[in-house]
């Protein structure tokens, strides 16, 4: 089968299965298997695809038809210009989260120490360390599988000054840090059943469920973080679009200074941060 014919097969199959970005996903899966790029569809559409590559593509299309996330099929996702391993044990890194990294980088100076709470794949911490000089970091997560994934990503990123620890929030964390970043679970328990199938079926509930009102982990981290922050240290959160007011209030009540909310590129509240004097 020719390249364009195989793409057309995949795009139609995904469209009929109700996949929102059927054409894009069909193309990305084909490019991943054949090690090609988007120009090949235009310039080399009549190229014959190897039988073994055809078979893999058909299998991948079937998996995507079942709403398995594209990133779980390929096993990777780009974030902050880096490629991270992802799987069913960690959240797929999203572009919105890059706003958290960018805001934290404004306060990150050479030689600082960073703690990433609820680290997942490690993409936030590893991006901060990759784009800074002489900084070191620790990532904490309650999931041993997530910690193992983050360690593999650290090795792949060739970042040495980092460690990951299995920890129920701060339970196994030691030391003090200049910056604490966190993208904690923030979906309210009752809303999880309403999430798109790719999320509620395939992503870890541990990384989604933020309790009855979605704020459980914010309250815990806000309360405990001062014991792990150096003087003047910052606490950065990613938040849900409707949580800026509540998280800001909690941080102010706990004594954080200059608490600020930052919007993402869609104009939605995405980050809240402040410092502890």
From TrEMBL:
What GO molecular functions are on record for this protein? Answer: nucleic acid binding; peptide chain release factor N(5)-glutamine methyltransferase activity
Q: Where are the transmembrane segments?
A: none
List residues of the Release factor glutamine methyltransferase N-terminal domain.
5-75
Keyword check for Ribosomal protein: no
Q: Which Pfam families match?
A: MTS, PrmC_N
Residues that, per the record, bind substrate: 183-186
Q: Give the EC class as a word.
A: transferase
Purpose of the protein: Methylates the class 1 translation termination release factors RF1/PrfA and RF2/PrfB on the glutamine residue of the universally conserved GGQ motif.
Quote the protein name from its UniProt record: Release factor glutamine methyltransferase
Species per Swiss-Prot/TrEMBL record:
Kineothrix alysoides
Query: In the record, what lineage is assigned to the organism producing the protein?
Result: Bacteria, Bacillati, Bacillota, Clostridia, Lachnospirales
Q: Which gene encodes it?
A: prmC
């Amino acid at each position: 089968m020719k390249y364009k014919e195989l793409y057309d097969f995949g795009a139609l199959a995904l469209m009929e299965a109700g996949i929102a970005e059927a054409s894009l996903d069909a193309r990305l899966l084909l490019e991943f298997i054949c090690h090609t790029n988007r120009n090949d569809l235009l310039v080399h559409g009549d190229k014959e695809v190897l039988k073994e590559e055809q078979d893999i593509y058909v299998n991948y299309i079937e998996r995507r038809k079942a709403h398995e996330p594209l990133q779980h099929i390929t096993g990777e996702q780009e974030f902050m210009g880096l490629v991270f391993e992802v799987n069913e044990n960690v959240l797929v890194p999203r572009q919105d989260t890059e706003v958290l990294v960018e805001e934290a980088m404004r306060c990150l100076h050479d030689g600082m120490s960073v703690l990433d709470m609820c680290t997942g794949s490690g993409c936030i911490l590893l991006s901060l360390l990759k784009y800074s000089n002489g900084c070191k970091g620790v990532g904490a997560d309650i999931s041993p599988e997530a910690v193992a994934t983050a360690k593999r990503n650290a090795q792949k990123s060739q970042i040495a000054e980092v460690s990951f620890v299995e920890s129920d929030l701060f339970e196994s964390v030691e030391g003090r840090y200049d910056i604490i970043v966190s993208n904690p679970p923030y979906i309210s328990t009752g809303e999880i059943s309403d999430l798109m199938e790719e999320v509620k079926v395939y992503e870890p509930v541990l990384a989604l469920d933020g309790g009855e009102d979605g704020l459980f982990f914010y309250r815990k981290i806000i309360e405990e973080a001062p014991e792990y922050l150096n003087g003047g240290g910052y606490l950065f959160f990613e938040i849900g679009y409707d949580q800026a007011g509540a998280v800001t209030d909690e941080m102010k009540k706990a004594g954080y200074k200059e608490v600020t909310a930052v919007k993402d590129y869609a104009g939605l509240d995405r980050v809240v941060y402040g410092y502890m004097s």
